[in-house]
């Protein structure tokens, strides 16, 4: 049943997507597997956009469908790891307004027992610095899906360094195109491919007690 989900989502068939999601969960599919199938569908939407078959309105439609799926999945998605407490600051970096994946990460971090300061989207570097100062959080999560987001990630990390906070804050990056190479280029400490990875990193950093 889940095999069909990426294509049906990429075809923007909202009703059918929601029917498959509900039926798959009722038949015992793992919520995480359903999420991954939908994410594969979003990648197909992106491919069609790049190929000139889809327009921005189609990207928007896919986002709306994914948000409906999120409403069903979020209460069911539980972090594998639980953290004994701590706080993180998160946001989508300047120039980028993609927030579907970031919101999944936020929910997973909350479900792992973390206090989360979510700054939203298109967040300027100085806002991240201010939030780190206000909250004293030792963990910063930067999300971004656009290639130009890499520059904003680097600028944000530079701003954290200039503010004298870099030794006190561990920084992770994530979002569609982010990988180990991007992580190294922007100067982050680590990166994660999904929301569970974000929780694992935050737990390891918070529980090791020594951020830098
Ligand atoms: C939906 C969508 C939109 C929607 C977003 C709606 C919203 N509220 O977010 C809208 C219509 C607004 C949009 C706009 C644009 N988009 Co768009 N969009 C997409 C699309 C199809 C899906 C993104 C998505 O939601 N994926 C599903 C989520 C669940 O996945 P995710 O974000 O990767 O998150 C997961 C992980 O990465 C991870 N994660 C996420 N954040 C973090 C953070 C940390 C710290 C960690 C550890 C993990 C982590 O956890 C999540 C859960 O597993 C992608 C295609 C794609 N391949 O992704 C294009 C895509 C990202 N968009 C693209 C483009 C070009 C644009 C526009 C420039 C289009 C235009 N001409 O206007 C604008 C840019 C607007 C801006 N300034 O940001 C390109 C980017 C190309 C590039 N190289 O830069 C893509 C790749 C499409 C493509 N193939 O061309 N878009």
What would you say this structure looks like, in words?
The protein is an alpha/beta fold. It has two domains: 2-76, Methionine synthase domain (Methyltransferase, Methionine Synthase (B12-binding Domains), Chain A, domain 1, Orthogonal Bundle), CATH 1.10.1240.10; 87-208, 3-Layer(aba) Sandwich (Rossmann fold), CATH 3.40.50.280. The protein has helices at residues 5-10, 14-26, 31-50, 56-73, 100-111, 125-135, 149-162, 180-186, 195-208, and strands at residues 87-92, 115-118, 139-143, 170-174, 190-192. It has a five-stranded parallel sheet with strand order 2-1-3-4-5, with helices on both faces. Strand 4, helix 8 (180-186) and strand 5 (190-192) form a beta-alpha-beta unit. Helix 2 packs parallel to helix 4 and helix 6 (125-135) crosses helix 7. The longest helix has 20 residues, at 31-50. The radius of gyration is 17 Å and the shape is globular. It starts with a helix and ends with a helix. Cobalamin binds next to helix 3, helix 4, helix 5, strand 3 and strand 4.
For the record, the count of structural domains works out to 2
Percent range for β-strand residues = 5-15%
Helix fraction, binned, reads 40-55%
Number of DSSP E strands: 5
Looking at the overall shape, the CATH architecture of the largest domain is 3-Layer(aba) Sandwich
Distance N to C terminus? 45 Å
Q: What radius of gyration results from the CA coordinates?
A: 17 Å
Order of helices and strands: HHHHEHEHEHEHEH
Bound ions, cofactors and other small molecules, one mention each: cobalamin
What order do the strands of the largest sheet run in, or round the barrel if closed?
A: 2-1-3-4-5
Q: What general form does the structure show?
A: globular
CATH topology of the largest domain: Rossmann fold
The first-level CATH class name of the largest domain? Alpha Beta
Low-pLDDT residue intervals, each spanning 5 or more residues: none
Which structural category do the helix and sheet elements fall into?
alpha/beta
Main beta sheet: strand number and arrangement? Answer: 5 strands, parallel
